[in-house]
Design goal:
Helix content: 10-25%
Shape: globular
Order of helices and strands: EEHEEEEEEEEHEEEEEEEHEH
Distance between the termini: 30 Å
Strand content: 25-35%
Largest sheet: 9 strands, antiparallel
Structural class: alpha+beta
Radius of gyration: 20 Å
Amino acid sequence: MIEIVAAPPYLTVQDAGRPGHRADGVPGGGAMDRWALAVGNVLVGNGTGAAALEWSLGGGRLRWDRAGVFALAGAGVEAALDGEPVAMHRSYRARAGSELVVGRLVSGRFLYVALAGGIDVAPVLGSRSTYLPARFGGVEGRLLRTGDRLAIGETVEGVVPVGFGAPAELEPRYEQSECGLVRGPHVELFSADAWRVLMETAFGIDPASDRMGYRLVGPAIEHRGDAALPSAPVCPGAVQIPAGGRPIVLMADGPTVGGYPVIAVVCSADLPFIAQRMPGEVVRFRAMTVDESQRALRRRAVAIHTLAHLARGG
């Protein structure tokens, strides 16, 4: 078990999500930054999609009831285990009674605390992820609170790495602010000038951004016609242009259907770069084909597989 000794303002259980239910109106959900989730998990010997803590908006403390292995991935933080500094993207052993203190987030938006064995809460629709809008998954479908205690799954003896750190070329890094965009299903509803504005603008992240969608601050993207369409399926990464022309990038908990034109879709491999942007930080876009987007995602998968191989002593 681990205990939440002091909860930050935002703390939930998230895994790789619950695919297969979008036809029923249930988003895939899961971690906002699946790259960081996967890296944290392989560093502690888990499968890439195991349930972990998704942490944001401030510091807090965790305590172990019994010895366990953990790793921090994603947003950069100041952290210490029993008073000793903890580095990002490296596995550590906590003793029974050990406390992890997470201070302020110094870069990025979402930190992942991966625990060997994964967080063992009851699955809902095949996933342990918390879906706050519908209040299911995780722990009672809510934010974790101070005093909550979470069960940890069993680990396989001898396969949990300790003291292994991700090589620099394989750890998540978020300096990149340019993300690939594939042309969307409604691009013909926009002028060539609208696409140029989308490609040439450094958009800011609006404070009114959350797990459902990130609003972008910049020049308006003008429609050729009506901004409202019949509802149609949408996905994480879809760039919707509502009335007023301010783009919205749909994120992990975004709706399954929408009636705003979708001018483009963010490359899945680049979506973590947007997820980790804080309000006021900027993101830029570059045009990308479907083939290029798929190749980028395959390269990411190979890098994670390589890291898992190295963590196992390969």
